[in-house]
Write a structure and sequence with these properties.
By secondary structure, this protein is mainly alpha-helical. It has helices spanning 9-41, 44-67, 75-151, 155-169, 172-178, 182-187, 192-202. Helix content is 78%, strand content 0%. Helix 2 runs antiparallel to helix 3 (75-151). It is rod-shaped.
C-alpha cells in the first residue's frame, strides 16, 4: 500500500512543498537545457548556408551542362568532363559538408543540453525520489497496520504494539513529551498516549485506531 502524504497537515504541507520544490528544480533545469539546445541549433543557418551554396553551384553547373552544344568532336566531351568535374569538386562536396555540419550541430546541441540539465536533475531527484518512495511505502504500511487492526477489532492489541515501538524508537524527549510516566503506562497497560505518539511519528491521525462504534480519543479526529 502507498500513501502519498501524512494525515497531519503540517507534515503533509512539508512534503507537498518538498515535492513542488523538486518538481520546480527539475523543470527549471529542463528549460535551461532546452534553451541551450535551441541556442546551439541556431547554428543550423551555417549548415543550411553551406548546403544552399552547394545546391546553387550544382544548379549553375547543370545549366552549363545543358547549354553545352553537342556534336562538336573533342569540344563537347571536354566541356562535359569539365561540368562533371565542377559538380564533383565544388557543388557536391559543399552539399555533403552542409549535411555533415547539420548533423554535428544536432549532436552537439543534444549533448550540451543533457550535460547541463541532467546532472543537477539527477543529483536532486535520485536521493529525493528514493526517500519519498520509502516514505510513501512506510506511510502505507502504517496505514495498513492500523486499518487491519481496526477492521478486526484488535485496536487495543495494536495500541500495545505501538506503545512498545514508541518506547523502543522515540527519543527520550519525544517519549517524555508523550507521557509523564511511560514505564508506568506500559506496566499498567495505559497504551493510549504512547500509541498516539507513535502514530503521529508514523504520520497518521491517532483517531484512525478508534474501533468502530466507540468514541474517539479526546482531542483526536477520525478520518
Amino acid at each position: 500500500m502507498i500513501k502519498l502524504y501524512p494525515d497531519r497537515p503540517g507534515a503533509a504541507l512539508v512534503r507537498v512543498f518538498a515535492d513542488l520544490t523538486a518538481a520546480g528544480w527539475t523543470l527549471a533545469w529542463a528549460v535551461l537545457g532546452f534553451l541551450i539546445y535551441q541556442t546551439v541549433m541556431g547554428l543550423e543557418v551555417i549548415a543550411n548556408g553551406i548546403t544552399s551554396t552547394g545546391t546553387t553551384f550544382n544548379g549553375w553547373i547543370k545549366q552549363f551542362h545543358d547549354a553545352i552544344p553537342g556534336g562538336i568532336p573533342g569540344v563537347t566531351d571536354f566541356l562535359l568532363k569539365v561540368a562533371d568535374a565542377l559538380r564533383k569538386y565544388s557543388g557536391d562536396p559543399l552539399v555533403s559538408a552542409g549535411h555533415q555540419v547539420h548533423d554535428a550541430i544536432i549532436q552537439v546541441a543534444i549533448v550540451l543540453a543533457l550535460l547541463v540539465a541532467l546532472p543537477p536533475i539527477l543529483l536532486v531527484l535520485l536521493p529525493y525520489g528514493a526517500w519519498r518512495w520509502r516514505d510513501m511505502r512506510e506511510l502505507g504500511a502504517a496505514l495498513a497496520f492500523v486499518r487491519i487492526a481496526s477492521m478486526t477489532g484488535r485496536a487495543d492489541q495494536a495500541r500495545a504494539v505501538l506503545a512498545s515501538r514508541a518506547v523502543s524508537t522515540l527519543t527520550f524527549r519525544q517519549l517524555m513529551s508523550a507521557s509523564a510516566d511511560p514505564v508506568g503506562d506500559i506496566a499498567e497497560r495505559r497504551y493510549e498516549r504512547l500509541a498516539a505518539a507513535m502514530m503521529k511519528r508514523a504520520g497518521l491521525d491517532p483517531g484512525r485506531l478508534t474501533p468502530p462504534g466507540l468514541p474517539e480519543l479526546p482531542g483526536h479526529r477520525g478520518r
